[in-house]
Amino acid sequence: MSLPFKTICLISVGMADSFRSIIDLWPTRIAMATDVGGAAGEVSKWWQRDKIPDRWWARVVSTRVAMENGVTLEVLARLAAGANVEEARA
């Protein structure tokens, strides 16, 4: 039995509505931590709190994963202000 087309894929930022959904763009917390130069434990805490501290934003948006998925400083700022990502991209 084969899996349906596109069963396993990254979440599109257009479908995201939280910092968690942005963190979930990476296949693992370890992968994100490696990309941003942090610790996997930190990234796990970000996911649990649904918040990426602003001091990490520049590192996050400079990653290939973030760039490919339209994650910008503006998107992160609007999420921090309580808007969802679709509103942030508008």
What is this entry, summarized?
The protein is mostly helical.
Please describe the topology of this protein.
Elements: H1 19-23, H2 29-36, H3 40-49, H4 57-61, H5 64-68, H6 73-80, H7 85-89
Helix pairs in contact: 2-3
Shape: globular
- The helix/strand class is mainly alpha
Low-confidence stretches: 1-13
In terms of DSSP E residues, the strand content is under 5%
Main sheet, how many strands, which sense, barrel? none
**Helical fraction:** 40-55%
Mean pLDDT: 83
Q: What sequence of helices (H) and strands (E) makes up the elements?
A: HHHHHHH
Rg over CA atoms: 13 Å
Put simply, the count of helices is 7
Quote the distance from N terminus to C terminus. Answer: 41 Å
Count of individual beta strands: 0
Q: Can you describe this structure?
A:
With 90 residues, the chain is an all-alpha fold. The model is unreliable at 1-13 (pLDDT under 50). The protein contains 7 helices and no strands. The termini are far apart.
